[in-house]
Amino acid sequence: MNTDASPIVVFRSADISNGEVTVVEGLNLSILPGEFVYLTGRVGCGKTSVIRTLTGENPLAGGEARVGEFDLGSLKRKQIPYLRRSLGIVFQDFQLLMDRSIEDNLRFALQATDWKDKGAMNERIGQVLDAVGLSKKAYKLPHQLSGGEQQRAAIARALLNEPPLILADEPTGNLDEDTARDIMRLLFQINGRGTAVIMVTHNQALVRAFPARVLVIENGICREQETTV
Q1: Single pTM value for the model
Q2: 225 with 182, same domain?
Q3: Which domain holds residue 127?
Q4: What is the pLDDT of residues 92-125, one digit of tens each?
Q5: Which of 38, 167, 187, 228 has the highest CB neighbour count under 10 A?
Q6: Which residues pair with 14 in a beta bridge?
Q7: HEC string for 73-118
Q8: Beta bridge partners of 17
Q9: CA dist., res. 175 & res. 165, Å (int)
Q10: 3-state secondary structure at position 127
Q11: 171: closest CA among 140, 138, 202?
């Protein structure tokens, strides 16, 4: 983590909406490049709404917020695809295209973000599959992989454009405990190479097993959890 760098995420007195009503009020938060941050709280407290605000899916309800160079308060619809390209996004349910191989899933994502050079695409696909330990399974369809392998493929997709920030929304929610820990180790390896990670989770056992900065949303307020030694 670079403590001298400018924050990659900033919220100032920000109100977060779920698309209909405000669920988090007066959010003040800065996240530096290379930080790993948990976002926790009860179901329905607004964790995912924060992620959706960061990706431009939910408009900022009030206050100020910025992700990288994007001002979320004045974000225009035509800017949203470029905002999302600057982020790596990992979902609980993987969201892979089931009718094509893992390699072709990644190729589709590159083409959707304006990659043209086939050689460069193949090289990048090889790099990210190697990074997540799936080099030998590039040809397989998603249903031929375990849940953990599918999530690794989804993480590979998130890495394609070398984002400075990964948003992971309950990435271990559909996995058994051992597989969840494998995915956590992978995310921390990626974080160790300088990529910031914001991870939504309700799994306190994982938070204890893989310590990092913890933010808790409760009764519409987001606060930082004090670390205990």
Answers
A1: 0.92
A2: yes
A3: 93-162
A4: 888 898 999 999 999 999 999 889 999 999 999 9
A5: 167
A6: 27
A7: HHCCHHHHHHHHHCEEEECCCCCCCCCCCHHHHHHHHHHHCCCCCH
A8: 22
A9: 23
A10: helix
A11: 202
